[in-house]
């Protein structure tokens, strides 16, 4: 049965993932936490954003605790996450690698409360775009905790001018049943067509170049460094769509640019169908992972780009081995078993092995591969030395 008591059109899953409760739980009473956990057991029709009864329960509890409450709902109507935020925002947890293809939506919609009667804000819309959510909805309420309005938005694939579509406010009783899933599937179909058409039309990777330089010039001028990076991209057959230069003396330890500026660049990348961010500096492993988690697109730095060019041009056996060894040693400190950015680096720019092969980057095998390469290179050097001595002994060049 649904939340409204109507029969469900789909079959019950025998074993489905227990929902996760996360966020700002400080100061909550035990009975409030239990009510939040109860929310995770609810089931919603797949063809409606949320039922009126469920919305009322969310709003009443949200008003009581003075914090936004959000739920992530999959396409079968299961609540997969219950999120507790502050009075004016909510943080979505890392969603692993669920449906990570850029040609598909996430398969989740977010419904959350707004305590101050405001519509969807920039943070909501940014999350919608960066996470490729099916739908984003904010519920506003009156002073008694009764829902009195719904603001929704969805992505607008194929448009470079409007990344998302913000829908008119709906009031209680206007949440039409029977069309939501169809609408989501139609949006996803447009997204797939857009990505497919772009892939057919282009032969090169599309990239944004990002440079962060000191406010006072030290060494090369930023414009010269960026021009050099452009030339490296041309050599690697990467099409540079745009460049971004930021002047600051202290890099953000987590995202280099700062989260706000990074999100601004990523939103532009989504609009321009950019699939690669190239940084004009060497990223630390934690920076590369953090940026990739936010961006959901491939992220490489100057060193990886140069190694990719070497891999492309390596011809001799010795050269190929040396390039692969350099790549694996560089990636070694950046590998974790579930590092999503490393999965994006398998093949293509930044993940191309010598001779157009894909790099073998499984963490459990990389040490073994490095050892084998070092042994093989040592053997090659010995053979070269023996051949050199024989030529010298025979007075050959």
How would you state the average pLDDT, rounded? 83
Overall morphology: elongated
Identify low-pLDDT runs: 1-19, 355-360
The strand line-up of the biggest sheet is 1-3-2-4-5-6-7
Assess the beta-strand content as a share of residues: 15-25%
Count of the domains: 3
Largest sheet: 7 strands, mixed
Span between termini: 86 Å
User: What is the number of E strands?
Assistant: 11
Q: Helix proportion of residues, in percent?
A: 25-40%
Radius of gyration: 26 Å
Give me the number of helical elements.
11
The assigned structural class equals: alpha/beta
Along the chain, the helix and strand elements come as EHHEEEHEEEHEHEHEHEHHHH
Throw out a few tags for this protein.
alpha/beta; Rossmann fold; 7-stranded mixed β-sheet; 4-stranded parallel β-sheet; 40% helix
Concise structural overview:
The N terminus is likely disordered. The chain has 397 residues and is an alpha/beta fold.
Itemize the secondary structure elements and their pairings.
Blueprint: E1 20-23, H1 30-39, H2 52-65, E2 69-74, E3 79-84, E4 108-114, H3 122-131, E5 135-141, E6 147-155, E7 164-166, H4 180-201, E8 205-213, H5 222-235, E9 238-247, H6 259-271, E10 276-279, H7 285-295, E11 298-301, H8 302-313, H9 317-332, H10 340-344, H11 363-393
Helix pairs in contact: 5-8, 8-9, 9-11
């Amino acid at each position: 049965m649904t939340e409204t008591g109507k029969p469900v059109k789909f079959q019950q899953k025998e074993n489905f993932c227990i929902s996760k409760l996360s966020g700002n739980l400080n100061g909550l009473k035990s009975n409030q936490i239990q009510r939040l956990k109860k929310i995770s057991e609810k089931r919603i029709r797949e063809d409606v954003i949320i039922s009126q009864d469920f919305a009322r329960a969310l709003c009443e509890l949200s008003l009581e605790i003075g914090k936004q409450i959000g739920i992530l709902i999959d396409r079968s109507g299961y609540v997969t996450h219950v999120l507790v935020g502050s009075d004016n925002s909510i943080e979505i947890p890392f969603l692993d690698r669920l449906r990570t293809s850029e040609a598909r939506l996430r398969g989740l919609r977010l419904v959350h409360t707004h305590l101050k009667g405001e519509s969807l804000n920039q943070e909501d819309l940014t999350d919608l775009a960066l996470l490729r959510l099916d739908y984003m909805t904010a519920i506003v309420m009156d002073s008694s905790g009764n829902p009195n309005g719904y603001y929704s938005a969805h992505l607008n694939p194929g448009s470079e001018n409007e990344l998302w579509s913000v829908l008119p406010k709906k009031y209680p009783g206007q949440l039409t049943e029977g069309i939501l899933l169809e609408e989501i599937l139609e949006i996803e179909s447009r997204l797939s067509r857009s990505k497919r058409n772009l892939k057919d039309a282009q032969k090169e990777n599309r990239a944004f170049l990002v440079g962060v330089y000191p406010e006072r010039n030290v060494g090369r001028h930023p414009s010269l460094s960026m021009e050099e990076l452009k030339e490296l991209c041309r050599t690697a057959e990467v099409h540079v769509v745009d460049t971004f230069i930021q002047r600051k003396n202290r890099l953000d330890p987590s995202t280099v640019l700062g989260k706000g500026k990074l999100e601004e660049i990523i939103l532009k990348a989504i609009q321009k169908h950019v699939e690669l961010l190239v940084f004009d500096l060497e990223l630390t492993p934690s920076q590369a992972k953090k940026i990739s988690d936010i961006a959901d697109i491939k992220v490489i730095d100057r060193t990886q780009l140069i190694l990719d060019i070497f891999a492309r041009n390596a011809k001799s056996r010795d050269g190929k081995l040396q390039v692969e060894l350099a790549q694996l040693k560089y990636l070694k400190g950046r590998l974790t078993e579930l590092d999503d950015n490393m999965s994006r680096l398998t093949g293509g720019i930044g993940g191309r092995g010598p001779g157009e092969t894909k790099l073998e980057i499984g963490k459990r095998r990389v040490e073994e591969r490095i050892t084998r390469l070092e042994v093989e290179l040592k053997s090659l050097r010995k053979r070269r030395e023996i051949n050199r001595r024989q030529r010298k002994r025979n007075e050959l060049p």
